[in-house]
Design a protein that fits this description.
Elements lengths: L1 H76 L8 H10 L3 E8 L4 E5 L18 H9 L3 E2 L3 E2 L7 E11 L2 E11 H14 L3 E5 L5 E4 L28 E9 L2 E9 L5 E7 L1 H52 L16 H64 L10 H13 L8 E8 L2 H8 L1 H16 L7 E5 L4 E7 L3 H17 L14 E8 L5 H17 L5 E2 L1
Parallel strand pairs: 15-16
Antiparallel strand pairs: 1-2, 1-6, 3-5, 4-5, 5-6, 7-8, 7-11, 9-10, 10-11, 12-14, 12-15, 13-14
Length: 568
């Protein structure tokens, strides 16, 4: 009896040692792997939320800047009475989606034109005064374009709005303010929803730290003032540069990253990324590993029990055969027919070992299948991460394309700059469909423009440039023509599918259009601003530099002939 107890004690010790040898390294490895995964995921989350805040603030700035540029150009070039601007306001809203309304306000703060049209009888009443709004006060005081803080409309719309505005200046004096209201939802909702899909929350604050927009997961409402220093940023912080910090208690008691970025308008963009999603992911992985460890433990126990049982049976058979042989008892002839009597117990033991090896092989195959399933699951996770990286790369590529477009526009006149003009020429030359297309080039120069700047000042010169560009654009045939500012007062036209006669007709219309806007110029021809135009044409887009050189030489001939005319 004592021998039997000792035998089972040895088996239990062997089982415990086998479990410790298999499970302790697995548990330690799993713990280290989970901790490293959490740290790496948390660090990656901080980097992603910081980059998202910087890119999103840049995107919002580009959105506001593009619409403010169009508003400023209209305010600088339209010279009709303010009450006749309703059609221009309709066209402005069509050109820039997201503008819910547009107003023209006189110098005293009265609305004189609006789009959409206000209810009958409201214009001219106290309800149509907007002199208390900062979108009127700031441009009226500074004579500069302005992006307002958040407010609710009261003349045309009552939704949450922000406004862009530009002063209307004539002969150096303020005659009114052009304003356009932008529905906050038009530029904030889509971005906020996209962030919520990834587990982020977005908060947009104006200069006074009042809420412009907050996603549904944040407990803030429109125009609520935020005093939490973790959600605000200094007024002198770099524009579009994110400041990211890890906060232990930022949203419903949850820790997370807070990324803040100051916009060019003075607004503040805040992104909040709780780490609870990371903890949930780590928790799920922990449960999976625990389940795997339990299965491994059960497998080890089962394999140990089976192996020890088979070993005991084989040993018993061997001892029984040896005992019978030692006692001289007869051995079963059927088991000894093919081998010597001395090797019969060894043969029986080999047969038992073969059976156990087959069992172990089946268990190993099952384990390999489980490993392949786990590897497939991990591969799916990697594929999802690769897709996220591809999406981020596409967003960055789109942002670079938008910056490239902005870099091709002359900031003063809205026409293409030299870079944009060269890029347009390159596209024309590389387009195989345009190989046999006739092209024409026009080089225009404002006559006596230095004398104009010396007499009237550079601000007036800038306004004259914008008005001249507006007149030139009115003579363009559409997308087939390209207008670019290639010098201080020098402009280049590229006409597709145009011969020298068509180019001459366009040049004459340009000269007449500039004369018709009647910009006073005491040193100019007939007392107004005029232009001289040189034209050239060729049967294909090849040798574009030669074409431009011919047009430039024709321009000098026009100047030598007395200016204010067209020369070939």
């Amino acid at each position: 009896m004592a021998t039997t107890d000792r035998q089972w004690t040895l088996r239990r010790r062997f089982t415990r040692l086998l479990l410790f040898a298999a499970l302790i390294p697995a548990v330690l490895f799993s713990a280290v792997m989970l901790w490293q995964q959490y740290r790496a995921s948390r660090s990656s989350l901080g980097e992603r939320v910081g980059l998202s805040a910087s890119l999103t603030s840049t995107s919002i700035d580009d959105f506001m800047r593009s619409r403010l540029a169009g508003l400023t150009l209209l305010a600088a070039t339209r010279d009709a009475p303010l009450s006749e601007w309703a059609h221009d306001l309709d066209r402005l809203r069509e050109a820039y989606p997201g503008l819910t309304s547009a107003l023209v306000v006189d110098a005293s703060g009265h609305v004189v034109a609006a789009s959409p049209a206000p209810p009958p009888g409201i214009l001219g009443t106290p309800a149509s005064r907007v002199d208390d709004r900062d979108y009127f006060q700031v441009p009226a005081r500074t004579l500069k374009p302005h992006v307002s803080d958040a407010f609710r409309g009261r003349v045309v719309a009552t939704r949450p709005l922000v406004a862009i505005s530009a002063p209307i200046i004539r002969d150096g004096a303020l005659v009114g303010v052009l304003e356009a209201s932008i529905d906050v939802e038009s530029f904030a909702r889509q971005r906020g929803d996209a962030f919520r899909v990834n587990g982020y929350e977005m908060l947009l604050l104006d200069r006074g730290n009042h809420v412009i927009h907050a996603t549904e997961g944040l407990p803030y409402r429109f125009l609520e003032q935020i005093t939490d220093p973790r959600l605000t940023i200094a007024a002198d912080a770099p524009v579009n540069a994110s400041q990211t910090r890890f906060e232990p208690n930022v949203l419903d008691g949850s820790a997370g990253y807070v990324a803040r970025a100051r916009l060019g308008s003075g607004w503040t963009l805040v992104l909040v990324a709780p780490v609870r999603n990371l903890l949930l992911s780590v928790g799920r992985n922990t449960l999976v590993l625990l389940a795997l460890l339990v299965l491994v433990s059960l497998g080890v126990l089962a394999a140990t029990w089976l192996q020890l049982r088979d070993l005991a049976q084989g040993t018993g058979q061997l001892l029984d055969s040896l005992r019978k042989f030692a006692l001289g008892a007869s051995v079963d002839d059927s088991r000894q027919a093919t081998m010597p009597r001395e090797l019969q117990p060894v043969a029986s033991a080999i047969s038992d070992m073969s059976t156990r090896l087959n069992t172990a092989y089946g268990e190993l195959s099952n384990a390999l299948v489980s490993q392949r399933d786990l590897a497939a699951s991990l591969q799916r996770v990697v594929d999802e991460r690769d897709q996220e990286i591809a999406d981020r790369t596409a967003e960055l590529r789109q942002a670079v394309e938008e910056l490239e477009k902005l870099a091709s526009i002359d900031a003063l006149t809205g026409a293409l700059n030299v870079r944009g003009f060269r890029r347009d020429i390159g596209r024309l030359v590389e387009d195989p469909q345009c190989e046999d297309m006739q092209v024409a080039a026009l080089i225009a120069d404002i006559d006596h423009f230095k004398a104009y700047n010396d007499r009237y000042g550079h601000p007036a010169g800038d306004t004259a440039l914008r008005r001249v560009v507006g007149a030139m654009q009115s003579c363009m045939r559409g997308n087939a023509d390209t207008l670019a500012r290639v010098g201080g007062e020098e402009f280049a036209f590229l006409l597709r599918d145009a011969d020298i006669d068509l180019a001459a007709g366009v040049a004459e219309r340009l000269c007449q259009a500039v004369r018709d806007i009647r910009i006073p110029h005491a040193d100019g021809i007939d007392g107004v601003v005029t232009i001289s135009v040189g034209i050239a044409a060729q049967p294909s887009p090849e040798l574009m530099d030669h074409l431009l050189s011919q047009a430039d030489e024709a321009l000098y001939r026009a100047k030598r002939a007395g200016r204010g005319r067209v020369s070939r």
